Amino acid sequence: MTGQAFVALLPELISTGFLILVLMVGVYTDSNAGVGVGLAAIGTLAVFGSAAILLATGFSGSFFGDGFVVDGFALYFKLIVAGSAFFAVIAATRWSGRTGDAPEYMTLILSVVLGSTILVSMRDLFGIFLAIELVTIPSYAMVAFDRSRRESSEGGMKYLITGVIASSVLLYGIVLIYGVSGSAMLSDVADTFTGTLTPVAVLGLVLMTSGFAFKLSAAPFHFWTPDAYQGAPTSAAAFLSVGPKAATFAILLRILLEGMPGAAPTWTAVMAFLAILTMFVGNLFALRQRNVRRMLAYSSVAHSGYILAAFAALQGGGVAFAVQAVLIYTAAYAVMNMGAFLVIDLVGEEAKNYNGLVRTNPGVVACMALFMAALVGIPPLSGFFGKLWIIIAGAQSGSILVYIVVGALVVNTVLSVPYYFGIIRNMILEEPTTDTVRSKGSGAVRFSVYVLAVLTTLFGLLIIPLSALVGASGLA
Amino acid sequence: MITTITILIPLLGAILMMLLPDEERLLRYAALGVAAVPLILAGYVFFAFGDDLGVAALSLDVTWIRSLNIGYRVGLNGLGFGMFFLSALLTVIAVLASWDVSRNLKQYFAALFVAEVGMLGVFAAQDLILFYVFFEITLIPMYLLVGVWGDENRRPAAIKFFIYTFLGSTVMLAGFLAFGILADTYAMNALDGGGGLSRTAQVAVAAPILFGLLVKMPAVPLHSWLLDVYVSSPTSTNVLLSGVLPKLGTYGLISIAIPLLPQGVEPFLPYVAVFGVINIVYGSFVAFLQPDLKALVAYSSIGTLGFILLGAASGNAVGLNGAVFQQVSHGLYSALLFILVGVIAVRTGTRRIEDLGGLAARMPWTGGLLALGALAAMGLPGLAVFISEFMSIMGVYATFPVQGVLAALGIILSAMYLLYMLARVIFGPIERPAYEEIGDAGPAEMASVVPLAVLLVVLGIFPALLISIQRPAVDAVLTVIGGS
């Protein structure tokens, strides 16, 4: 391994190192939660720091026979993954310390980090599949980790079964694409996927897309999402809905843009269909939920739909804006959704737990109100910028179908107001009841919530320039 | 730079409010102090730069998002300055008039100040996206001001307010984005006259923008959120709700839709004038039927907003000057009436018109000022509203004579219900024995209404104070749209 390749793999090597370290702590010390959690937190920060340094120095290159690429795009998503993992570690501290399984849980988080960071750099379809499995297999365990709650095992089991089916569908699609193009390298696939596609190639594309739709909880493949997120420990739901999901969107974008640019008319139409369906399903089901965690699970389905709308806009003059829309939206969603899940950790998951909370916890309420408003897309909060870019990309694409998708996005934004604002109403306008919970939990979680609230508010000043920087260099 | 500082001071004020200890007198005085600063700065701008608002000291242009050509671009001109000043003034008045708010006072003032950031920003923004951002910043604080501190009917009212106006502004944003994409910039000064768009494109872009602005106002068929919100709000929120918020819509019409999309708006102008007439006539008729004094004032306030639409639609100097002026005079009189209704409701414990009567005997100041406000609302010469309504009607008569004549008839309707209201509430025998005991408005209440009454009179006698500031900007609009 050359020196260059060693530097390129720095985030992955660091996460592997800490993964082993935390696992050893679990094996050789007797339920010593503090050390494991501390190491995991340092580990995620180190991954974040190494990716940030690589991004700042403008490091880029292609390694291992062009199978592993480091570019601004990949590094940006490594930042999102590592950053969200850090907050997940913080959120898991108190809970996993109580059960005494902290090091094991932290190991799982670090495995997901490792898989996700590898995933966004892959340029080989089989490598992509392996990386996705490295992400999903630990995440089954994370969802089912809370043995004190029956829903956790149930959610984990549902997630496992659908996840395995999704993986096989995905793999089948990849194999067909490999069969058609004779190579699993994206650059070789691109040569085959031009002009009129053969039926087998279309089948491969559709199967692979369906596999991804499962992983991204896009309708009609979203059924596992509410059960898995409701059952999962809060930190797991928060992290899985944000970090690995962003990485999966990133690699799907890379496959489509690097591997199948010639087939864009086919897959943008598929994406447009998925986007419209996913937005409506997510929002209409979210409207009916009384459980905040389940509501946020459907909300995450809806937000997958919004991001898929950017994928539909990857045509005509909209490509550059659509890529940047994905960059911005995933980061925006990461800060606001992570924040909302951490508040659930502090307060509780029933909507009535939030009644009149402003009397006892005005700070937490202010943050939660910001997260909810950001999820709606109120300016100048983070979600607004994500939607702004998607609408602009859609308008630039010059396709009638994409205009319809953008119209659906606007309609869905208004449709989502009642359930997000229902939480704000409960917190601020309702009287407290016996169900109202005084915010509990550690100072670290509370501090994380405040940090995320600041990021959500100042998104336009802090993260937009970063994404513009990456967007300029684009996919290497 | 001064403009930016003025916009940001209330934000700092909101943070300060949250940090202060929970002590009522301290909070009220601190809030008054914070609110006074933007007003003083706006007053300074009036005296120092009144003859030329285009100076560099007042504007700031920083690129924000380079790839989209969106910038933090602010500056003042004659179209917005009157409302910029009035927003600062009405925030001070709202702080003074917050006697009926006692619960969670620091949060109340914080929300008030965040709303002020948005209001000041809208009237200074020189970039479409920035305009939208400020436009929406007012939304959540207003939702909270109504939803937390309103009366028992506040929750549905607040949700209704939010969903309606959010829907309207989302549609408006779609129009802005289409405009910016087609013209490749969001800077308003670069978009004058259509930013190079064809007539068809201008019409397509203008339609959603007009819809959003008319919902915000609200123009009559789009107004159904309004009554519950106005009636449920605390008095000091009413001051902003009626004094400033509708002007976010009308100001957008006068300073964005008309000069930036002249050809796109043109086919809609006769209908804008018709909306104006509908507002005036419908507002007057429905006001006549209201048993509740506050609802009567609310409908009267919707009614006189119609004159802004008429003046804006006229497309000539007299009408546009009237429309810009009416934004300010409407804010002054409606805030005055809402506060006085609040004073009466606190004293008598009711807002039902038929339960009131003979209040002038016990509350001479309140009664007198209520009479002044009502006379202003019906357009009595010598008061500010007369000047602007008269100019709007003159302007629109030249362009759309039918609408002009109908609007003039509307003034008679307003005289009917306002005189009826005065006769019923202020004059006549004292309705109930309990009213023998009530006292007149106290010092804080007087302090909140007297400046409004004084300005109504001063601007009625010296309209040139405001018109001289707004005329250059109105002339610039006329050059763009090719009117006279």
Keywords:
heterodimer; A: 476 residues; mainly alpha; two-stranded antiparallel sheet; 21 helices; 77% helix; B: 484 residues; two-stranded antiparallel ribbon; 22 helices; 2 strands; globular
Protein architecture, described:
The complex is a heterodimer of chains A (476) and B (484). By secondary structure, chain A is an all-alpha fold. Chain A has a domain at 261-476. Chain A is 77% helix and 1% strand. Chain A is built from 21 helices and two strands. Chain A has helices at 3-8, 10-28, 33-56, 72-99, 102-119, 125-143, 150-181, 186-192, 199-215, 224-231, 234-240, 243-259, 264-286, 292-312, 319-347, 362-376, 382-397, 400-415, 417-429, 443-457, 459-473, and strands spanning 61-63, 68-70. Chain A has a two-stranded antiparallel sheet with strand order 1-2. In chain A, helix 5 (102-119) runs antiparallel to helix 6. The longest helix of chain A has 32 residues, at 150-181. Chain A is globular. With 484 residues, chain B is an all-alpha fold. Chain B has a domain at 266-484. Helices cover 75% and strands 2% of the residues of chain B. Chain B has helices at 2-19, 24-49, 78-96, 105-124, 128-137, 139-149, 154-183, 188-191, 199-216, 226-232, 235-243, 245-260, 262-265, 269-289, 293-314, 317-348, 359-362, 364-377, 384-399, 401-425, 443-461, 464-481; strands at residues 60-65, 70-74. Chain B has a two-stranded antiparallel ribbon with strand order 1-2. The mean pLDDT of chain B is 89. The A-B interface holds A 320-321, 324, 358, 362, 369, 373, 376, 378-380, 388, 391-392, 395-396, 410, 413-414, 417-418, 421, 425, 428-429, 460, 464, 468, 471 and B 64-68, 107, 129, 132-133, 136-137, 139-140, 143-144, 147-148, 154-155, 158-159, 162-163, 166-167, 170-171, 174, 177-178, 181.
